[in-house]
Model the fold of this input.
Amino acid sequence: MNGAESLVRTLLASDVNVCFANPGTSEMHFVAALDHVPGVRCVLGLFEGVVTGAADGYWRMAGKPAATLLHLGPGLANGVANLHNARKASSGIVNVIGEHATHHLQYDAPLTADIAGIARPVSHWIGTAKTATEAAKLGAEAVAAARTGAGQIASLILPADTAWTDADGPAAAIAPPARKKADDAAIQAAAQALKAAGANGMLMLGGVGLLRRGLELAARIAAATGCRLSNSGYSARMERGGGLPQVGRIPFVVDQALAYLKDVRELVLVGGRTPVAFFAYPGKPSLLLPQGCNTTAVASIDDDVIDALERLADAVGAPKSVAPAAQPPLPALPDGTPTPDKVAAAIAALLPEQAIVVDESVTSGRGIFAAAAASAPHDWLNNMGGSIGFSFPVAVGCALACPDRKVVALTGDGSAFYTLQALWTMAREKLDITMVVFANRSYAILRNELANVGAANPGPRAIDMLTLDRPDPDWVALAKGHGVGGRRVDDMGDFAKAFRAALAEPGPQLIELVL
Amino acid sequence: MNGAESLVRTLLASDVNVCFANPGTSEMHFVAALDHVPGVRCVLGLFEGVVTGAADGYWRMAGKPAATLLHLGPGLANGVANLHNARKASSGIVNVIGEHATHHLQYDAPLTADIAGIARPVSHWIGTAKTATEAAKLGAEAVAAARTGAGQIASLILPADTAWTDADGPAAAIAPPARKKADDAAIQAAAQALKAAGANGMLMLGGVGLLRRGLELAARIAAATGCRLSNSGYSARMERGGGLPQVGRIPFVVDQALAYLKDVRELVLVGGRTPVAFFAYPGKPSLLLPQGCNTTAVASIDDDVIDALERLADAVGAPKSVAPAAQPPLPALPDGTPTPDKVAAAIAALLPEQAIVVDESVTSGRGIFAAAAASAPHDWLNNMGGSIGFSFPVAVGCALACPDRKVVALTGDGSAFYTLQALWTMAREKLDITMVVFANRSYAILRNELANVGAANPGPRAIDMLTLDRPDPDWVALAKGHGVGGRRVDDMGDFAKAFRAALAEPGPQLIELVL
Done:
């Protein structure tokens, strides 16, 4: 058994059985091992940003890491942006990155690059196999690293000779370290703070605190103390709809965020973070909390968030259960010219039960999250790292993790362009994904941002940098080119029909909604 | 004048007047400055790999650096693969990378990343503006760094507050250091070696040694010594056709490369490098020179290559001029089912005068280079870094550098997918680019490579990692989606018609040749 096969068998022993891949010559032994060792599902992406984004989505919905297979430094580099997003989302991923044979590195061949250097900014753990026998051991360590805390990025560099040389065999799985429990003193301090603050208290949730069990605990704490529930702006995954306790979110726009937080006197962090502005702007604060607000950090996202919520619920004397919140009525299906409110209403009204929503609708879809509180139970996934080109790849991973659920990817056209190659993987794997591309043919957010930074009245050279017109992209053609069916609509009645039809069909479908 | 404007005016003062851009919020002041300072042509790319590849192509044909404008760490990361290629090609590029305002960095906002860490593996020079007044000075240094040696990658990190705060004004251009001259002893040693070796001598050229003046000098040296002329396998830019002296190239396949080099007893490096295998393979050598071959290094690509060739020509007593080589006859236009030889013949026969060929035809087009020796005068550009997704972006930069010349981009379908968003920039800027996509619907090179590494008889899981069928990409639809016209052909007669028609039309045209 060579090093490559020992690594594949180690990954299987560690319950890693999906590999998103874009291999090259230096990974051919790993590909050959995947080929003759049954049990690993291999999914090809035509660009590495698809591969790493898919691994992110897979982790979020499967709760366990997938492997990626990447071709040397440049292949890894192409996946770095979505690894950045995954890192900020605390997703666990095991990257297997091929490298030249160790004896070949000294010659500075065309593809030679500083792979560890490229991996470092996005990796919690980096290992390089020095020998074939080391590959299995490092593989087990990489999986344990990926499973550490809320989830981490592990990057294992596999020189070609360590893949092709004989090795001992697979390594056994390594259990990740147990999650840290919150200090009792912090629990007591948080309980007192929330009880004293009433409606001026806020419980900031994150990680598994935003899944059903965490939300139910948070609702009990809110019932006992009157505190508000929030997340830090976005969430890697939140369960919601169907009467689940609702959690607010900090608006992107700084002035709106300040207004949202202005009455908070006691902030308690359980999995969540201190709210900060997405970007800095001249004359505006980075820290969004009002002056004098007190913060009690109970548990970070890497700690045992559920345990902390259970103990906090006890400490505030929370009721054993609270009645489900009254679910808002489903909005009516709108007609006519699209507006953000109408788009939000239509998607909320039609969202199917157990949908997995991957939301990258940067400007056009800002209202959808709030409206979908009225929808059937669903999961909501945000981009935690802000690097666009997130939604299509993440949708691929979600669909593979949850083949019985419908994935709905919502994206602006500017964002969708970054990793549109994901469409082909959706077609090949017949993934059940409905995509809505909001075609405003611009980086609409930047028009506001240009004004926000004080550059009003832009001229044509600046406007050209913010618009995607001249020519207008044709998303139906782009979908077709990748083997995916598409429809273009510019009216809300037609949108509802198209959205319903896409949801009713198996496999990927794209709707271009012209705004 | 704020820091952003002082930097834009500094770039202009240093003769940088093209900016390939994909900006975000943190770059809005720079965009505003580009807007109201006349003289910089801004070209938007919908993905950063397009932006950096275009800057590479621009350098190769314009001989001066363009700027890129990239959005924080992830935006830079998306451009790293083509920066890797540019670095290996010794292309000069000035990256301007936006960063959060300095006071905002401590809060670890979603887009916060280690930008310098991401830049390091692909940059010769990295600078971060600490204050607005520093931006101009660093800008001038960055341009000088980009112009150093054969060309370098300079990465300037511009925190948003250093862009928006008042600054002093632009900085004057800084002259790059003069290129090093070759040692006399090396010249003399090389002259003796080549004279002694006769037909067993090889002059390995690179950099400007592959442009007209260098080739003419090399031909005179060959006439005097009988040596062969070669490059190291690929060239960033080579002038050829129309009777220019021909230069061989080392084949990609190791056994073929060993055969090509087997008679070389004296190797002289003037701008070229010692030949090494692209990849390592079990049981095959990395170094391709035959045992006992002696190497004399006269000038590296960063040294004064033309001066070294002039002095070497004198030292070998070369004739003052040599008659132009007999140009091979143009091949006849083939008909029928495409084969690599027919493809090579057709493209060579139809290549227009002064074409700029950007070659990423990894497997299907390996014969085109040799055949095109018979073509009208043209430039030939290769991928020096091996990271695919190179040709479309580089073609963008070439077309902007040489608006009066026809750019011909030759690419496999697998490679083209990586950065297909370049098509949109071609459409917007009406760039005169004819693309040929060799649609073999596979990573054909990897089928060979799987066998080369000893993994014969692959099963379905391996085959799936090497094929782009299921579904077949539709390149005509992909072109249309980006606003570019396209045709699909699967017969050589139709190909010739389509290629001729595309060359006759202004603006971008794509031909999908199904193999």
Q: What stands out?
A: The radius of gyration of chain B is 24 Å. Chain B touches chain A through 103 residues (CB under 8 Å). Residues 271 and 284 of chain B are 26 Å apart (CA to CA).
